[in-house]
Amino acid sequence: MNDRSAEPDGAGTAPVTLYGEFTLAGARKVRCAVSLTGKELIVQRLTSSPVERNKLVLSLQDCVGCRAYRSSDSLDPASYLAAYFYPLKRRWVSSGVSRQRVEQCFRLAELQDRRANQEEAEKWARAVRERSARQRYPGDGPCVSELPRPCRIMLLVNPQSGKGQALALYNSHVQRMLSEAGVLHTLVITERQNHARELVRETDLSQLDAVVIMSGDGLLYEVINGLLERPDWEEAVRTPLGVLPGGSGNALAASIHHYSGASLVSSEELLVSCGFLLCKGLVSRMDLVSIHLSSSPRLFSFLSLAWGFVADVDIESEKYRHIGAVRFTIGTLVRLASLRVYRGRLSYLPAGEGCARGAVKLRHNPPPPPVGPGCPSRDSPCQNTLYNSCHSNNSLSARRTESVSSRSASSSLPGPSDSLLLPLDQPLPSDWVVVQEEDFVLILAMYQSHLAEDMLVAPDATLDDGTIHLFYIRAGISRIALLRLLLAMEKGAHLATNCQHLVHTKVRALRLEPYSPKGIITVDGEVVEYGPVQAEVHRGLARLISG
Ligand SMILES: Nc1ncnc2c1ncn2[C@@H]1O[C@H](COP(=O)(O)OP(=O)(O)OP(=O)(O)O)[C@@H](O)[C@H]1O
Question: Which is one GO molecular function term here (predicted)?
Answer without folding.
Answer: sphingosine kinase activity
